[in-house]
Amino acid sequence: MIEIQDVTYRYDENQIDLALNHVSLDIREGEFTVILGHNGSGKSTIAKHLNAILLPSGGKVLVDGMDTMEEERLYELRQKVGMVFQNPDNQIVATIVEEDAAFGPENLGVPPQEIRERVDFALKAVGMYEKRNEAPHNLSGGQKQRIAIAGIIAMMPRYLVLDEPTAMLDPKGRREVMKTLRYLNKEHGMTIVLITHYMEEAAQADRVVVMDHGQVIIDDAPSMTFANVALLKSVGLDVPQVTDLMFRLRQSGVYLRHDLLTIDECEQELEKRLREIKEG
Amino acid sequence: MLTDITLGQYLPGETVIHKLDPRTKILLTIAYIMALFFVNTIAGFALCAVFMGCILKISGIPLKFIIKSIKPLWIFVIFTAIINIFMTDGKIVFQIWVIKATWEGIYLAVIMSLRLIFLVMGTSILTYTTSPIVLTDGIEHLLGPFRKIKVPAHEIAMMMTIAIRFIPTIIEETDKLMKAQSARGADFESGNLMARAKAMVPILVPLFVSAFRRADELALAMECRCYHGGDQRTKMKQLHMQGRDTGAFFIAAVSITLLIGIRYLPGLI
Predict the structure, then answer these.
(1) What's the pLDDT at B268?
(2) B138 with B22: CB under 8 angstroms?
(3) Interchain contact B235–A (C-beta under 8 A)
(4) Domain range for residue A276?
(5) Do A111 and A249 fall within a single domain?
(6) Chain A nearest-CA residue for B132
(7) Do B237 and A136 touch (CB under 8 A)?
(8) Crossing angle between the packed helical segments A141-153 and A171-188, to the nearest 10 degrees
(9) Which of A215-231 are b and which e, b meaning 16 or more Cβ less than 10 Å from the residue's Cβ?
(10) Mean pLDDT across the stretch B120-128?
(11) Structural domain contains residue A117
(12) Which end of chain A is more exposed for a tag (fewer CB within 10 A), N or C?
């Protein structure tokens, strides 16, 4: 478990505004958590605290009980909490896919035979095993980002933190990455923390944390989070299109459930309501 | 415009020469270069040509690629030839004013030109048959023993790898920038040299800025993957010397002995 305890953070000593304003949050094992927020809400700042890229100005971050301030255990911490960034091009080190996946375990001093096994496992987990001997620059954005994820998986982390991994991808690449993350979470029990501003991605999580001005304002299941349309809109976030449609219909007086997220669910609900109206 | 990027000049293949350990190939290339400086007769270079011919045949590199790699040499060849022809003392062939050409000079010019050509030929066989990554790996291993005298072997190899990795990325970006600037009316194709150089400034500035930003992000990503230099680092792919490497060393030893021997042969007989 990652425990964020009353953390505050300032980028600049002289700044009055806190980038993180007394944030407390627990990341539980096996959970798929999405952190949502507008630009400057502190969502990336919180992610960078999870593997000691940033250290809290006040409060504490504990990863399985290990304080991120302990400098001598930095590599142990970074092995435990893997981090994927926005631009896949700037994360890939090697000129061959499988060499890149091997980079992390090589740094950790893992024996060659075991690195081979880990690399094969990681590339299969993200569905890039067939491309293992190709050059990364010949691949699409989504594929490159999956290789970046494989590079982290090969380090056998307990937690996978992704800081807007889909922001630079096209819709197809975005779907590929989301599918990979859901697979890792469901099939391999990987704990995932996804920072994003895409509502559709948040809808696929177990838990949604919404941040604004360095504070957590919502921490709930996606269906409950998106039921709060007015609050989300007030902090500059959109809701998924389906949720928005249902919200507007409810506002104009149609009685509808408010915890629906997928198109199928909404279709059924609307059909049911229409039938009821018809039958009077 | 800048598509179809090939890294270095590697020609993938499955021949014995391709499969040799990179360390073998690097060491033998160095030995070959040193041996070339002992060769100073036409007979010696003829022998050399036979060896090179055999290696080319085995490695399956088309002759035109070798010719392509030798082409840029002509300036050096002409330059050294002229200096040798006119600056060497000996039996005069012809004389214009104070400039005189000598038989010895012509002979020396031919030898020097042949030496340059064979030198480049040998090294280009190395780069044609070895991928840049494998080559880097070989260099890292060969420099390994020098780490004791503070030669940063791993760091040099890491820098080379990253440079190779980012060549296509930067080229792609240059292409994008050029298109973006052309769309706003920039002209890269007309004008004299100065005008064209000036037109490149709006490309180079953003390119540099972005390269620094990339370096920064890459450094962070590498740190997050526990990179901390070459200490206690392992490698997934281990280099192994095999039977064919021993064979290559043996053949090379014989060939080089022959090459050097031919220099002293006339004296022995």
Answers:
(1) 54
(2) yes
(3) yes
(4) 240-280
(5) no
(6) A95
(7) no
(8) 20
(9) ebbbbeebbebbbbbee
(10) 87
(11) yes
(12) C
